[in-house]
Design goal:
elongated
Length: 348
């Protein structure tokens, strides 16, 4: 079994799923909104919240690049630079959010886009570091992430198998700790036929690491299915209010939806239970009540030698098992037995 530790939490095989509310840029650059969103995520049962501590200039130089997105029921177009710039989280803001999360009792991590962002994360004493799928090919950054000694989580959206292999190799060039790979479909929102959850199984088989799922679909179906397939880490977009302005709010989960998702995941975990074959403690009484026994097919007298016609298979399951009927054929009763009475070893 594979396991890792994040703080005092064990994550991996046979452990509770680690559930992350991806706030991302849904704070809209407002730290008060960010804190209210953290409170809502904590109330909904998230184990952690995630932000994006990027520097816009790290990935956008052409300020004329436009982004078209849905928000508040309308289609909006604006320069990508403007959108991302107003939602930046610098080192000071990140430290504020870390202190707030510590006070709330919820984990926090971010996706940096440079060594400077990694340094901010280290200064804030954050213990998980994650990439954005767009940065999976940034091999120098992945090596820097691995060099921190922190738990690294890599999203694999938009990546080819070769690109995933390059990123994994880069990580293990610098680190010995177990890696977590998240399957992800980078479409917002992702339709059901684009999700391909079986890729999680292939990621685990091919790279020998823990796997999870970063869910960009509407609703909870894909996430629940991922849990049944062994996801140890779930990331789901989260917002305080779907009607807030911004590109991600409308398809993110709000507090009520996320709370229902967490409750369903915990129920599914209970249902998955153990793979060990055999009946449960709760089934012990059911075995006695509902399984079949060898019973007398008619009233039988003491000294009668049992034949197949004397045996029927009926409830309760407290007598000799039907599979052992051949063992009592030919044996002699040492006392009378009534029709329907289960045979036991004491009858012979």
């Amino acid at each position: 079994m594979m396991k890792i530790s994040v703080g005092d939490r064990e994550i991996g095989d046979s452990c509770p799923v680690y559930i992350v509310a991806e706030i991302g840029i849904n704070h809209n650059g407002d730290m008060d909104l960010a804190e209210r969103t953290i409170i809502a995520a904590h109330t909904a049962g998230a184990d952690a919240v995630k932000f994006q501590s990027y520097c816009t200039e790290d990935f956008i130089s052409n300020r004329e690049l436009m982004l078209e997105y849905q928000s508040q029921g309308q289609i909006h177009r604006e320069p990508q630079y403007d959108l991302f710039k107003r939602c930046e989280i610098d080192g000071e803001k990140l430290l504020r959010l870390k202190h707030f999360c510590d006070d709330m009792g919820i984990d926090v991590h971010t996706t940096p886009t440079s060594q400077s962002g990694i340094d901010d994360l280290l200064a804030a004493n954050i213990n998980v570091i994650k990439n954005g799928s767009d940065y999976l090919g940034h091999i120098p950054l992945i090596r820097s992430m691995a060099s921190t000694g922190l738990q690294v989580v890599l999203s694999t959206g938009m990546a080819s198998a070769e690109e995933i292999q390059e990123a994994v190799d880069a990580y293990y060039d610098k680190a010995d700790e177990k890696l977590i790979l998240l399957h992800c479909t980078s479409s917002y929102p992702a339709p059901a036929d684009s999700i391909h959850l079986r890729k999680m199984c292939q990621l685990r088989k091919q790279f020998g690491c823990l796997v999870g799922f970063s869910d960009h679909s509407n609703g909870s179906t894909a996430t629940i299915a991922a849990v049944t397939m062994g996801a140890c880490w779930i990331e789901k977009h989260f917002t305080l209010d779907k009607n807030l302005p911004g590109p991600d709010h409308w398809f993110s989960s709000d507090e009520l939806e996320f709370k229902a998702l967490v409750e369903t995941i915990r129920c599914v975990e209970a249902c998955l239970g153990s793979a060990e074959l055999g009946y449960t403690d709760l089934e012990a009484q059911s075995r006695a009540d509902f399984k079949l026994s060898c019973v007398a097919n008619r009233d039988l007298s003491k000294c009668h030698q049992l034949d197949w016609e004397d045996i029927a298979f009926r409830r309760p399951g407290t007598g000799i098992k039907p599979a052992n009927a051949y063992k009592i054929v030919g044996q002699v009763l040492k006392s009378n037995i009534q029709s329907g009475e289960p045979f036991t070893e004491n009858n012979f």
